[in-house]
Each structure stands twice: as C-alpha cells, then as structure tokens.
C-alpha cells in the first residue's frame, strides 16, 4: 500500500473515531471508510493498533499526577469535587466515551481479512482485545454497569439504544477479553516499552478481578451492590492471574542491596529495558518528538502539591510495628526526625533535608536542606502540606529541561502483581505465611524491613479499618505505602467502599508547621499541624456515600437513550 493510501486511511479513521463525540456510543458512519485493502497485511494491523499507545492510556508520572483524587496527595489550590461531594449531573458528568471501544470492535471485526499467516499478526489481535478490555474497565470504574457492545454499530442499529448491563456482566466480558489477549500476545518479556505482552494482560486481569471482587463484597447491601454477588469468583481469578505471572520467572523485585535507596532509585532510572520489576514503561525519544515535557524540572520545586500526614503516619517503624506507643518513633518536630527509625520507603517517597536535591553538571550537589529552608518563602516553594514528593524524581540536572525531557514513566510493575495476589488470597481466607513470604516479604526485603508475621501482628489503635482483621489492615497498609502515587489509591478506596473511613468528614493534614524557617501560609490545627483546607472544609469532606462512588451518566445520553438509567443518587 502506498503512502498516499496510508495517509488517506489515517485521516478517514481519525475523523471517524473523533466525530460525533456527543452522540451515544460515539457512533460514526463506517460506510465512509473507503480503504477496503487496509487489513490485508500484518503491518496494516500493527499500524492500526499503534493508536492505542498514547499518553491518554499511558500517562506521564509528573507532579500533577498520581493519586490527587484520594487521601494521600493534594493540590492546595483545588478542593477535589468528588471528595467534597459538590459535583452535579449537569455540570460534572464525564463523557460516556465509547470511541476506544468502537475502534477496537472495528479491528476485531476486520482483522480476519489479513492474508498473511495468523502467527505473523496474532500479537496485534491480542493487543486489540487488551485495549477493548482496558477501555471497558475505565467505563466500569467510572459508571459501573454500562451497555456492552462488542460489534460495530450502524446509525440504525437497535443496540444503540440498549440498556445497561449489570456491572458483573461487564467485568466478566472484560476478563474474557483479557483471556483472549493473553492467548494471542507474546509470552516474551520484551523490552517492556515497545508493545504489551501476555503478562501485562494477566496483570490487568488480576487488577480487574480484584476490583470487582472487592466491590461486590464491600458494597453489598448498598445502592451499589450486585445481585447474586460472587466476590470469591473474582478473588480466585485475581489470585490465579497473578500467580501465573509469579510462576513465569520473568519478573522480580528490583534490588541492588541498598535498602536506603533502591525503592527511590527504581523510579528515577533512565531505561527499564532489562529491569526485572518494570513490566511496561513509556520510553521517550526527542528525535521522534516523544518527550515527558518538563517532568523533572517541575519536580524541583513543590509548587502547591503535598503528601498528607495520613500517608506519613502509615509508615511502620523499623521494627515492623506501628508508630503508636512505639519508642522508636521520634515524633513530629521535623521531617528528618519523623522519618528516623521508620520504613525507608517513607524517606524515599518524601523529601528529607539530607538527600540530594540537585546534582549539577559540574559535579557539585545541592541538598534538600537548601530547599527546606526556603519552603513557604514564595509560591514556587510553597508545598501544600510540608511533605514534598520525592518519588519519581531524579536529581541529576542534566536530565532536567524546561520543555523537553526524555524522562521515562513506569506504567505497570511487578510489585502490584504481588500485592494483588496476597490481597486476593486473604479475601478468600486462604492466605498462608508462605504467600506472605512470596509477596510482602520481597517488598520489605528491598528496604530492609521485617517481614509480616500473620500470626503475630502488632495491634495498631489507628488502623484505617478497625472493623476488619489485622491481616487485611496490614495488607492494605502495604499496598498504600508501596504503590502510592501510582494512580491506584482512589480505585482502592472505591472498591473497598472505604470513603466512610477515609474521606467523609476528614481533611488532608500536613506536617508540623513550627519546623519550617518561614511560617507556612496555611492554617494549622490545635496541635500545630498544617490544615490546608481548614477554612474551605470546616466540616471536612462532604463525600456522599450513596452517590459519589460512581460518576453520573451525562444527561445528553439519557435523553438520547431512554433505556439508560442514571446512577444512584444522581437522579
């Protein structure tokens, strides 16, 4: 196929995939596609699925990303509307966007036209099934049950006006698509940046199954509950998918034997092609105009962002026990002493004065103490909470640029596989010390922390989930501190139905204000901790438990399709 035909195809399909964004299911007239020979070669199929490897599906882990819609990381200039419960169905409804679903359906209906041997293009078929599952999972997390459409619809197709399928039906379809993806995708580890593989599909499957199993268990008896719920089915699938990855022998936890830096260093590496933990990552290339904008440059200064005291208090002491009543805990007088005798992931996630801030091109090092002394001196050096994000940073100034950086971003890593597995096993009531040794122990070994002994768990009076078992609390704690800033915290809160424990009536707190050389420009509470939203949220977050776990369907869609029903609380 010549270049002109390729350009014509991309123009037509691009127009079709983005047209009619306001119409139900983003429908477009497929009879306008006039390139009947496009799907004839394996390269045609590759070109088609390349469109899914974009920033919307694989975002950059910059300072304005990663768990901002949760309880661990905030921006002082913006109160999250979901957490505050101030969204409306008319003004804040996200799009019921089926563009990705429709384009993957189009591929799945047409790939059989390829005239080459199936072995030459089955990878791309697997990718199409993966991304259809990916798009539907995003819809499931946002809206719950949605219409299931697995074929290309015309403008007069009756399926355009179908009702929503129950959420567990959608989850089952997603899991089935991921089974198909795993069947067709390469089982090679690959470089982890070019194309997804079988193991990414299984990781996603474990994530989806854990999400649905938790949702069905913890939302049972509420407006978000599922008829004939079967959480054990999904927990079993989550554990099985994760176990298969673990058994492959292809992945492991990155560790060089330096517990004081290995966790931090993992997120600041420049290449993950041979990294044993990173399963998929976004590679930048300035020559191809693929870059991470000013990711590290923006990380240099804590402009309005901050980690929360709730996160800080979650890190155990170095003896593996909580801070409450623990003689190892040095108190809150300053961040350096607060991180002393604590899980090293604390100081590898949050800046302390003694670590490198900038390693200049002339070989000199500027330490965070210099920035620490400037905190709250102006808007550039004004963090929301005093706890400044260090994770995902690299202090080598040669890598920083105002506009164009080649700083990569991790998308999926093996640590999540381990945590998915042990949580699913615990929810099934089947977890053993052997399971913990295969999972949590690996994560703690990296940072030199004691293993979790499931038969000897120290009581924490401040457990986030006092109604649940000590084991579940500690597994959730491990997930919180290991995966923080990786865009998984809100999905965890949602699937655990945990907003009543973590969000409602609460405000995100900061560090002790008295430690800073310059008085913070924020209110403080009675104990002297920074209370960023004290005035904006005098009663804490107003999250509505009977409404805000799901997004409202757009009013335009409800008008177009009278068979659609609105989500609970948004009527």
Termini, distance in Å?
Answer: 52 Å
Report the structural category.
mainly alpha
- Individual helix count: 20
Low-confidence stretches: 1-34
Strand content: under 5%
Q: Mean pLDDT, as a whole number?
A: 93
For the secondary structure, the number of strands is: 6
Major beta sheet summary: 2 strands, antiparallel
The CATH class of the domain at 3-52 and 85-234 turns out to be Mainly Alpha
List keywords for this structure.
571 residues, mainly alpha, Serine Threonine Protein Phosphatase 5, Tetratricopeptide repeat, two-stranded antiparallel sheet, two-stranded antiparallel ribbon, 20 helices, disordered N terminus
Tell me what the structure shows.
The protein is built from 20 helices and six strands. It is mainly alpha-helical and 571 residues long. It has a domain at 3-52 and 85-234: Alpha Horseshoe (Serine Threonine Protein Phosphatase 5, Tetratricopeptide repeat), CATH 1.25.40.390. The strands form three sheets. Strands 1-3 form a two-stranded antiparallel sheet. It has a two-stranded antiparallel ribbon with strand order 2-6. A hairpin with a 5-residue loop joins strand 4 (356-359) and strand 5. The termini are far apart.
């Amino acid at each position: 196929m010549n270049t002109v035909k390729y350009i014509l195809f991309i123009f037509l399909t691009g127009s079709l995939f983005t047209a009619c964004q306001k119409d139900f299911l983003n429908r477009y007239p497929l009879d306008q596609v006039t390139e009947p020979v496009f799907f004839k070669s394996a390269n045609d199929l590759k070109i088609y699925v390349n469109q899914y490897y974009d920033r919307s599906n694989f975002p950059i882990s910059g300072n304005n990303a990663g768990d901002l819609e949760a309880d661990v990381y905030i921006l002082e200039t913006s109160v999250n509307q979901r957490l505050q419960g101030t969204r409306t169905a008319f003004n804040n409804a996200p799009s019921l966007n089926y563009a990705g679903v429709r384009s993957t359906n189009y591929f799945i209906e047409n790939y059989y036209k390829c005239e080459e041997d199936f072995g030459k293009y089955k990878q791309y078929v697997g990718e199409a099934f993966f991304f259809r599952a990916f798009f539907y999972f995003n819809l499931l997390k946002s809206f719950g049950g949605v219409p299931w459409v697995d074929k290309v619809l015309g403008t007069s197709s009756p399926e355009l006006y179908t009702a929503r399928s129950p959420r567990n039906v959608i989850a089952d379809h997603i899991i089935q698509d991921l089974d198909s993806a795993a069947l067709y995708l390469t089982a090679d580890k690959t470089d982890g940046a070019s194309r997804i593989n079988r193991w990414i599909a299984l990781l996603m499957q474990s994530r989806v199954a854990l999400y649905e199993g938790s949702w069905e268990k913890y939302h049972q008896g509420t407006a978000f509950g599922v008829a004939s719920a079967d959480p054990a089915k999904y927990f079993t699938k989550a554990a099985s998918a994760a176990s298969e990855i673990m058994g492959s022998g292809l992945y492991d936890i990155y560790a060089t034997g330096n517990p004081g830096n290995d966790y931090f260093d993992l997120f600041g590496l420049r290449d993950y092609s041979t990294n044993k933990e990173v399963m998929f990552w976004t590679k930048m290339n300035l020559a191809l105009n693929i870059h991470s904008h000013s990711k590290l440059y923006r990380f240099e200064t804590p402009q309005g962002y901050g980690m929360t005291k709730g996160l800080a208090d979650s890190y155990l002491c170095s003896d593996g026990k909580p801070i409450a009543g623990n003689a190892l805990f040095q108190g809150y007088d300053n961040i350096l002493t607060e991180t002393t005798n604590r899980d090293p992931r604390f100081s590898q996630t949050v800046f302390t004065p003694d670590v490198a801030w900038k390693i200049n091109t002339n070989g000199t090092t500027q330490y965070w103490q210099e920035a620490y002394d400037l905190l709250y001196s102006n808007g550039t050096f004004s963090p929301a909470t005093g706890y400044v994000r260090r994770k995902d940073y690299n202090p080598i100034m040669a890598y920083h640029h105002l506009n164009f950086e080649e700083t990569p971003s991790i998308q999926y890593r093996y640590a999540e596989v381990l945590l998915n597995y042990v949580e699913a096993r615990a929810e099934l009531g089947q977890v053993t010390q052997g399971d913990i040794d295969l999972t949590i122990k690996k994560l703690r070994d990296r940072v030199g922390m004691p293993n979790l002994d499931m038969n000897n768990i120290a009581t924490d009076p401040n457990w986030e989930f006092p109604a649940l078992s000590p084991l579940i609390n500690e597994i959730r704690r491990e997930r919180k501190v290991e995966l923080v800033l990786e865009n998984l915290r809100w999905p965890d809160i949602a699937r655990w139905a945990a907003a009543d424990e973590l969000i409602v009536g609460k405000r995100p707190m900061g560090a002790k204000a008295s430690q800073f050389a310059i008085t913070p420009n924020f209110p403080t509470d009675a104990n002297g901790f920074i209370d960023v939203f004290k005035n904006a949220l005098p009663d804490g977050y107003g999250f509505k438990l009977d409404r805000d776990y799901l997004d409202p369907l757009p009013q335009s869609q409800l008008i177009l399709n009278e068979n659609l029903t609105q989500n609970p609380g948004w009527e």
